Fold each of these.
Amino acid sequence: MSEVKKERILKISILRFDPTDPKDFPHIVTYEVEEADGMTLFIALNEIREHHDNSLMFDFVCRAGICGSCSMLVNGQPKLACRVLTSKLDANISLAPLPLFKLIRDLSIYTGEWMRGLSERVESWIHDKEEELAFDKLEQRMEPALADEIYELDRCVECGCCVAGCGTIQMKPNFLGAVGLNKVARYHLDPRDKRSDEEYYEIVGDEDGVFGCMTLLGCEDVCPKDLPLQSKIAYLRRMMIQTAAKN
Amino acid sequence: MKIIYTDVLVIGGGLAGLRVATGVKERGHDVVVLSLVPPKRSHSAAAQGGMQASLANCKMGEGDNEDVHFSDTIKGSDWGADQEVARMFVHCAPKAIRELAIWGVPWSRVHRGEHTSVINAQKVTISESEEAHGLITARDFGGTKKWRTCYTSDGTGHSMLYAMDNKAKEEKVEIHERLEAISLIHENGRCSGAIARNLMNGELVAYVAKATTIATGGYGRLYSVSTNAIICQGIGQAIALETGVATLGNMEAIQFHPTAIVPVGILTTEGCRGDGGLLLDKDGYRFMPDYEPEKKELASRDVVSRRMTEHIRKGKGVKSRYGDHLWLDITILGREHIEKNLREVKEICESFLGIDPAVDWIPVRPTQHYSMGGIRTKYTGESQTLKGLYSCGEAACWDMHGFNRLGGNSVSETVVAGMLVAEYIADFCDSDESALNIDTHTIATFLKAEKDKMEALLTKENGEDAYVLRRRMESIMMEKVGIFRNGEDLQAAVDELEELYKRSKNIEVFRSKSRGANPALVNAYRTQKMLKLALTVAYGALLRTESRGAHSREDFPERDDKNWLKRTITSWPDENQTIPTVSYEEIPIEKMEFPPGFRGYGKDLTVVNPETTKRQGVVDALTEKLVREGANRFEIQNALMPYIDKLPKKYQGTNERLGENV
């Protein structure tokens, strides 16, 4: 005789709102879903959309924790929803869109605009005025350990969790946030980027940059990629103080 | 009516699309990229293990060059590839990787001195040379003679995509996000842009361009379990098909990756096996050496996937509620290696399986992974039949992969094809030929047609549920158009898919009636398009009565070079037809640099074409003569199959390597 396991009934409460509908207002709807083995929030939300409410909006792309699309508040914590196994949660689950980002509808947020702004603000690309695209020649050498160190910081997926978990941004909306500071640290480390310390100071050497951070470090707590945000912010701050003292 | 004019429209913001966009922009043309998601979230980011380029820096890559990469690629394709295109590709792969190194990808580097590696379940010591220190290193992948797959840990696609997107931002490439191209504007065999739908507010926008490029990736989501991102639904191929003019190539050529986790189908990279990981059965027995004594776990992907399926069919799989699976064992590599070089794999195992791969075995089984087929193009990336329409990357059938792609050749193709196609498009835009003669009435007609389709879906009554049709399609593809195929199942698949397609004309969007952001509406129109595409795959597979690469017919196990050395071409010329039109394109043996042979897996079941023997004779005689005369490898290659003049001038140069051409 096969054993029949009784699955839990999950009660998933979702903060819903369609800002383009003048009659709509933010409200919470609760859906009941039967749990299955290995169920993630990706599976649960798709089940709700297919069987309960086909108008529910959310953003999944890779559903493997790689692309950073599905960040939302899960029981109040910023998380990549695709990686959350329901078995690790209580049967009552609350979901809300990631705060501080432009809302498209329900759990879907517009991170693209923010990503572009971030990239342009810190100019997250290699700056080399002498750069010559010598693609027929042997590549420039790099110390293997340094390449690994750069990759470590390059792993950021710009999901926005650190922004949602940041106490400083709540008060100073123009604060760059850990994601931006990490990028500056990444390019500063990269010998291919020829920007001077002074040029980096122009980008982050102020209250909206590294000196604005109140060191609450919610960013490091919620980063799904376990980036060393705390040590990189500390490093940047030391570097910027040195640069300021030098001038 | 909102019309946006530009020189070049690029549909798709992954690696291929972004590389095309930056290339044409650099040549002075205006460009707009349409992307379903912010480009950094594209599926390119999911490529883990690496990019093939014959740099020959590391010890195990010594002696590698374009010739070796070429023969691996052609063998891997089971001789289905276009050999000139494959030559163009292997010649430019080192250039593309070096360009990306300049743009910031932190490629893993060679470290001088000794290091331990696992090869064939044995720990071996490899000694790297002093002169290679700090150059880009590589790992082993399936179906390759040398260690050629360059990487950044197992987040290669992520690093490449980020560098590429950052470059596009530096060049101020205009990117319109959450914009979905839903039809192509075309008239008299000339494509002049696309109608796109804004997924945030439902607005329809016409984009008019001299050249339109489709770089939307593969169509893996026709299958219920796929490693692909959920946006890889083949809509790019479908809108090309719906023109009735553009054609698709080899749609039945679908790759299954041996090691996706069970049940969710998330990929664990081929790098796991490349770095020394093993496949084990329910008894913990390493079975691959029994099937493929030479290459073992590192046989070509199609071969490993079939062997795993065979082994499961013998009752050697591990039972689970989601069906049988096998084990991938990477514990032998050690924690340090896993945490440095396979960290995405580790995260995936922790998050989705709750296991630690440094200690536990990973449950895996072959899963849909890659689309070799796509929009059929010339070597320039332009459609063979619709002028002004281009395609590259996984979306295209360019065709360097034939019937099976080698691991590491896909991200490599995206950037190589991207940089080449950008030049051909720029040349086209520079020429008088590209002048557009289109009136706004035509644009309005195309725009209205799409508006009417949306209205019909929203206002239909007593119609069909798109989710039901789509789920059924996905399981038909999975069960009947999978790793092993046979005539009976394929016929049943075609019949039922045709039925589903007819029903899909009657889809109704239930309840969710918003004309703005509306996921149910999106699912409805995509399902209609996906069903057409599924039919091209299943019908092409039914008609191809041979086994070649990833297309494996149990009722026709031979690779039949006499009758089937040709590409399947599908089109949909009449809106009212319910089965695609199929024709074939010969792959001429008499022009091949590398005539068909035995791939070296299992038994040789080739039905030899008499032309093969003839051509092999010519190739051998010519090679021997030139060697005698002291010709170098470039001269010999050029005599056998000249291709270099087809490349844009700037990419014709010889590649430097340690000890060669420096």
Amino acid sequence: MPTPLVVSEVFKSFTMHLRDGITLPVVSGVSFSVKKGECVVLGGPSGVGKSSILKMLYGNYAVDSGQILIEHQGHLVDLAHAAPRAVMEVRRDTLGYVSQFLRAVPRVSALDVVAEPLLARGVAQAEARERASDLLAKLNLPRELWQLPPATFSGGEQQRVNIARGFITDHAILLLDEPTASLDAVNRRVVVGMIAAKKAEGVALLGIFHDEEVRDAVADRILDVSAFSPRKAAA
Amino acid sequence: MTDTPLLKVNDVSKFYGSRIGCRNVSFELWPGEVLAIVGESGSGKTTLLSCLSTRLMPSSGIVEYHMRDGQYRDLARMGEAERRFLMRTDWGFVHQNPADGLRMTVSAGANVGERLMAVGDRHYGNIRATAADWLARVEIDEDRIDDQPRAFSGGMRQRLQIARNLVTSPRLVFMDEPTGGLDVSVQARLLDLVRGLVHDLGLSAIIVTHDLAVARLLSHRMMVMKDGLVIEQGLTDRVLDDPREPYTQLLVSSILQV
Amino acid sequence: MADLATYNFAYLDEQTKRMIRRAILKAISIPGYQVPFASREMPMPYGWGTGGVQVTAAILGPNDVLKVIDQGADDTTNAVSIRAFFQKVANVAVTTKTREATIIQTRHRIPEETLSAGQTLVYQVPIPEPLRFLEPRETETRKMHALEEYGLMHVKLYEDIARNGHIATTYAYPVKVEGRYVMDPSPTPKFDNPKMHRSEALQLFGAGREKRIYAVPPYTDVVSLDFEDHPFEIQHFDKPCALCGAEHVYLDEVVLDDKGGRMFVCSDTDHCEDRREHGHAGEMLARQEAAE
């Protein structure tokens, strides 16, 4: 089975120059892969580096060493060493990310926030808005909010906008950072359904879910990040 | 995505006597890419911007631009006529102080129309219609078209300056602290506007700013400058979320949280 | 001739004349280009035509016949005193007849009668730079001329239309000379602009305070700037000249009394007199004759 995401021997530490240059190891020797149509959930206690792994995979954190191989348009790209332009391209076409919090842009309506990834890929505005509407309706976001900028929305409303934005494209790999954290049971079930649909389409998913019910519903496999703890490696 | 950079900067340095303006800067800017140059005052970011935009001659190094005809041209070897033509057609320059980039004593419509007239547009009705269209795009009421920018607020002036620059559909826009000196709410509106225009028009831009929030919102890529050197560069998200250099960490940790 | 001993012929010394002639030759070689020259102090204040007087002095010969007009008239103060000046310092023949003159120095008008080959029209120019009111920096305007960046000139015309609905510039209306330099034709009414185009006469422009000379050689294209949808137009007058009945000439308004009485008469006094001598009569003249 094709494997669009392969992580190999990734090490990551932070050097805190403002605190006398101390080095904080984050993870070491991270190696795993995610297959098409598979949903892998990162497990382990908080602070073990789950979020850091997602951020490295999306390019927000640099890595000290190792490889992050992404299958992008028929060839492999090592995101750990790719130029910014290549990272942008991979993000646009292959790698999606649903973060915990929405980075709200002033004055852009919820509908356009959701439609934006499609516009960036050249989809016509009318079609992009229609697909965005479908998703927001599916996630039960009140219709009267669609034309408003999400900055003033509640946490749950913002998160639904964020999820819609992440799910609107047909990215082959999707990273999910606690997408259901502030949702009620009804909407959690909607998201679980959407994840199942992505899996059926052959999307490779990697996520963090603290909610056990959701985790059990979506996970094909749980990857214990404690295994990559630098303290353990040192021991 | 095209495979040719719009701007190729190779080892550019600028010295003021024995003092360093900027040193050994190299990078490539790609079509549709927005690059933020950040650093505190005196870090050389404005000197670098001037060297790139031909407002200053670099002491050494080469800046090449990908012309519309597909050729790369060394900007320093270009004739002045051609360079000025490039600057008012294929390039834009947005100054921090709008008075530096506008004609304060001619109407908003003429400010926007000037570039069109400079390239030979001779139909008043068309020029005016285009100017009105651009004023609308930068959210200036059409009934202000005959007012002089002297009668405009700071935010409106800055938006007018942007319209004046974009009317000839440039491919590359330089911005020097475009939101400096504006109220925060006015800044937000301007940033959003610039972000939308850059996206809709597929512009490439080089933005000098000391405001990391501006860089985060507008840019894909960032260069951090200190003492004339580029000390760190990379994807904007990466530089801001995982700053590597001591100075960058200091900058990022100095952002006020609201 | 006794008076002449105190002055060199035509007031200026020969070295100065040579310097000015060199500037004139250069100006003729580059039609519409403003040539700097070392303008001298003249025995009259700036604004009274010191530039035009220096140009005239430099080209004047003993056999020339000089005509001087101010606003089209031969009998206004400025015209009379400059004419008297050259009579005194050069002892040249003077005339008010356009067709008899070899050199015509003018302020604000071009004679109605078409000038012919061999004649020279000398303009007095206050501000030679057409871009000056929009761009105050001389370094920048020079560069704009050099690089043929004339978008700004249309900005001025755009402003006119935006404010008034039409191009309201009625004098000092910018022209493009021989398809290259944009030139200020001095504060002549735009009515006279078409007369400059492919004129048989040599046209010289002198700005004393600003120290510039420029020229339009004979048979040179002089095109008034405009927009496609707002083409250049000259002024039109509702009535003919009240004295000579001439139409299609430039008219001045003359107030006759304090009860609102007024008439419009030829600004070119020579042209008007010439017509009257040939039996043309306007409304006012006919009324006077009837009263007598």
